[in-house]
UniProtKB/TrEMBL annotation:
It comes from the Bacteria. It comes from Thalassotalea psychrophila. Residues 445-537 form the Peptidase M1 alanyl aminopeptidase Ig-like fold domain. Keywords: Aminopeptidase, Hydrolase, Metal-binding, Metalloprotease, Protease, Zinc. Pfam families: DUF3458, DUF3458_C, Peptidase_M1, Peptidase_M1_N. It is an enzyme of class 3 (hydrolase). Belongs to the peptidase M1 family. This is Aminopeptidase N. Its cofactor is Zn(2+). One of its GO terms (molecular function) is alanyl aminopeptidase activity. It catalyses: Release of an N-terminal amino acid, Xaa-|-Yaa- from a peptide, amide or arylamide. Xaa is preferably Ala, but may be most amino acids including Pro (slow action). When a terminal hydrophobic residue is followed by a prolyl residue, the two may be released as an intact Xaa-Pro dipeptide. Gene3D superfamilies: 2.60.40.1840, 3.30.2010.30, Neutral Protease Domain 2, Peptidase M1, alanyl aminopeptidase, C-terminal domain, tricorn interacting facor f3 domain. CDD domains: M1_APN. The keyword Protease applies.
Amino acid sequence: MTEFSPRYLKDYQVPDYKISTVDLTIELDDNKTIVTNVMNVIKSGEHQRALVLDGEHMQLKSVLINQTQIDSSQYQLSDSTLSITNLPEQFTLTITTEINPVANTALEGLYKSADVYCTQCEAEGFRRITYFLDRPDVMAVYTTKIIADKTSFPFLLANGNKVEQGNLANNLHYVTWHDPFPKPCYLFALVAGNFDLLSDTFTTTSGREVKLELFVDKGNLSRGEHAMVSLKKSMLWDEQQFNLEYDLDIYMIVAVDFFNMGAMENKGLNVFNSKFVLADDLSATDDDFFNVEAVIAHEYFHNWTGNRVTCRDWFQLSLKEGLTVFRDQQFSADMHSSTVTRIKNVKIVRAQQFAEDAGPMAHPIRPEKVMEMNNFYTLTVYEKGSEVIRMMHTILGDDAFKAGIELYFDRHDGQAVTCDDFVAAMSDASKTDLSQFKLWYSQSGTPELIVSDDYNSATNTYQLTIEQSYPQTHDKQEKQNLHIPINFELITNDNEPNQGGLLHSKEKTQTWTFDNVCSKPLPALLGNFSAPVKLNYHYNDQDLNTLMVDASDEFNRWDAGQKLFAGYIKQLVNNPELDLPLQIASALEQVLACNADNAFKAEQLILPSFDEMAAAIVEVNPGSLVRAITVLKGFIAEQLQVQFLQTYQSLCTSEFAKDGQAIGNRALKNVCLDYLSLLDGANALVLNQFTDANNMTDQLAAIKVAALNDLACFEDVMTEFATQWQGNTLVMDKWFTINALHNNENVVQRITGLLEHPEFSIDNPNRARALIGAFAFYNSEYFHNKDASGYEFLFEQLAKLNTINPQVASRLITPLIQFKSFDNNHQQLMKGQLQKLTKLESLSRDLIEKLDAALK
Ligand code: PHE
Ligand code: ZN
């Protein structure tokens, strides 16, 4: 493997030069785009150090200082830098480069795909457009002039406000944009193409009218409406909750089909993966609608948390991401059921973030060492980062938290700052000591709370003892005790009100004593998942049944059910013949019968996922785990067959609605279908649902259970689905995914064949993830097949993606590097594939970093 050296947080130094303005002229062309970049550069302090600009994958055409061309005796060019020496205190630097957008399959920098030119600069893509100080603490005011063919590219977009436009010779035209807010280059954006435009306006509290423009592929206008409504809801919410108003006169969103991530918060010009913009009743599921709204909100919220106040360096990524995820989660919770929203967040943390913490890429939410920044857009930085913000919210309370946010903007608007600055604002505004709490930023790994208790009926006292325990992480970091907020409730069956509140665990072991407890209580802990930790307390089935019904925290009611299921799944892994108690079924029967809302009931009925269980069991045999889950599911299905069928039928309606209740009904109906699909009669039921479906949620649920149970109708419904939806990229992604989930020993052959399908293209990240990713992440049975055919398949795809799109490759390698969760046999097979990858020629920095970590 090639050597790449990591960068360290501790090595941070302020930049030697500032760049105050950037004037770009970009003449778009498929293979030879010319970028002229005129910068005002100012030396910081007195020194004679060279100006070292970042730049990659482009051709340098010329360098001018104060309008005079300099030659290569005055500058030095390397693979990744341009160094210029002997510079005055302040000067105009003009750099011209040539780039090739069509050849750019990595989708970083300026690229052309599906007839659209677009840019992606976060984290370090701007250096593929021009030579620059590509670091977030260099903030400049940008003016961008775009020149392109008028017929093919009627829309030329960049950040800020449009200041000029006009026609040129040869059917060319130009548009000039000016963004008055100084920003780091990662927020720069440019888009050129031919779109349909959905326009609207939003009037801010202070009465300014903002133009809202949503650009979608021709013919897709109606599919953009939900995104537009979501944007307006987000704008209103941020004003109401945080007094944060939008600041430019125009807010643009462009949907593109080729995008490495979900979306990007470029100032005034968000670029979105079309998956998180386009949605209509027939082609999008209820989850899709939810996700579009959440991602629209997330990017919008970045305008303050990320853009107005940005990161000093990339190690501080969680400053903007953890905070913005927290904000979008709060928004979603306000728009929908807060408990169900919280459950969705927590499932991701437990199934995937915990796995990351337990794997070779374990890192704190503020990493200390990075080789390829793109590898750190992780569940840890985003989701655990959000949990850390949430804990501050829990510890300080809503009012003090909001005062902290206000102080943060008072102090830092227009600056590039650190996580320490954020915590300082929180601490100062609330007059709370957060020094121990801050360790959450520097410590990796998932803490475990070991809880024991003791009740003394003579004195009516109850003692709760909590020990913090830290499993060794891959980075071998030494652990300190954290400040962990623990929501608790003591459930008693006497008539006294339950005691409850917030415990602050700060020491290795701490005991709390409660008086006036008249009967032995049952502790309900970590209500609403008050900290991202594992909990170890010996609840018996009876306890869990009690919690499922009596815990006042809805999240805890759900969680008790999950614990009950998880306990049996663990036992079934070792003993598939285990006699399961009818009690499990009766607990669920109660769930079905009670009058909670159906979305919540649906969550209560869903078993813990393979990933969540794998994160909770050491060195598990993947096949045994899949079977254990299936046995439990089959048992529940048989016991509650009548109730499931009844519920299912009662929820089948011919009208389609999209309000919260209708969504909850569909969720519950499809969970019932999922259980019923394990029983006799499944084929007819599923076929029926498929045929009758008048919305994507139901249609997709039907083909999914057909795949998961390899039902007789599987091939037919898949063919029919593909015929109905061919050409609809987003729906065909779903079809590819269902193929990858097929529970059949020939699935590797099937998906290998699909690589040649006319609608498949490995260059498109959504497609690659839909087929290859879905197989590796979610077809646990056949990905982990003991003949290693699943691993081998992934290896072959990664070898291709390594050169086509390293970022996508680096995401899809995740299931292979997390081999530690599995038994030795599987570990060896997985490592074998990783070894093969290390031998590839021109291995990307992205993969090298992960392979190094995994094989170390
Ligand atoms: N900053 C984007 C977000 O969280 C994510 C992103 C990162 C997109 C890197 C593209 C590249 O909203
Ligand atoms: Zn973000």
